[in-house]
Write a structure and sequence with these properties.
Rossmann fold; three-stranded antiparallel β-sheet; 8 strands; binds zinc ion; alpha/beta
């Protein structure tokens, strides 16, 4: 296995695909927030500092974020691969990651970057339709996954609510900010690594199949390249 990087705007289905990757390959899913919390809880002084800064709304420098990610990626459970989600966020972080991979991965261990794309209108509708049950936390979507009875949770009939940040104006703002942030990263990795572009509007299973096929083909290629060089695969 090699590292897998997930890119895509919110609502493209990164979380769902990440869960499936974890189940299939038994590798950790490292989302930025979880990663920082985990490092802080494990007593890493840098982790504690970064988490406090984030909570206070202070800007955390690229260098600090990268240092923390490096600490996490050097842990035992990442030796068989990992899924990065939400990192890198800036071009500087992406360049750092490329260098980190170059110095830490075996020859031919090309990482795989998966870019989940969704058309703007589709995405807007998906986010706009999101509703959740305040009782059991189940998520619905008025357009793609409606409850059996309009506005009520299937499990406990609690009225469904819309999150504050799923408000139309907030969604629009968030999407354009993400696009501005994500597209330069996509271009960077398109040149540097194996980049798979998958349409997140296809059925979830179909998206997973494409991702699995790419990862497994890459694994075979890496193994044969390592064999040809007489190195252990
Ligand atoms: Zn419920």
């Amino acid at each position: 296995m090699v590292p897998i990087l997930l890119l895509g705007v919110p609502g493209a289905g990164k979380g769902t695909q990440a869960k499936r990757l974890v189940l299939r390959y038994n590798i950790p899913h490292l989302s930025t927030g979880d990663m920082f919390r985990e490092m802080a809880n494990s007593g890493s002084p840098l982790g504690v500092q970064v988490l406090a800064d984030m909570r206070a709304g202070n800007l955390v420098s690229d260098a600090t974020v990268c240092e923390l990610v490096a600490l996490r990626l050097q842990r035992e459970d990442c030796r068989q691969g990992y899924i990065l989600d939400g990192f890198p966020r800036t071009l500087a972080q992406a360049q750092w990651l490329q260098g980190f991979w170059a110095s830490s991965l075996p020859l031919g261990g090309n990482p795989i970057v998966i870019y989940l794309t969704v058309g703007y209108n589709d995405l807007y509708r998906r986010l706009l339709g999101r509703r959740s049950c305040s009782q059991c936390g189940r998520i619905y979507n008025e357009f793609t996954q409606p409850p059996r009875q309009a506005g009520l949770c299937d499990l406990d009939q609690t009225p469904l609510v819309q999150r504050k940040d799923d408000d139309p104006a907030v969604i629009r703002e968030r999407l354009s900010a993400y696009e501005e942030q994500t597209l330069p990263l996509v271009e960077f990795f398109r040149k540097q690594a194996r980049l798979l572009e998958v349409s997140g509007t296809e059925p979830v299973d179909r998206v997973s199949e494409k991702i699995f096929a790419t990862i497994e083909n890459a694994g075979r290629e890496n193994a044969s390249r390592a064999n040809a060089k007489g190195e252990p695969a």
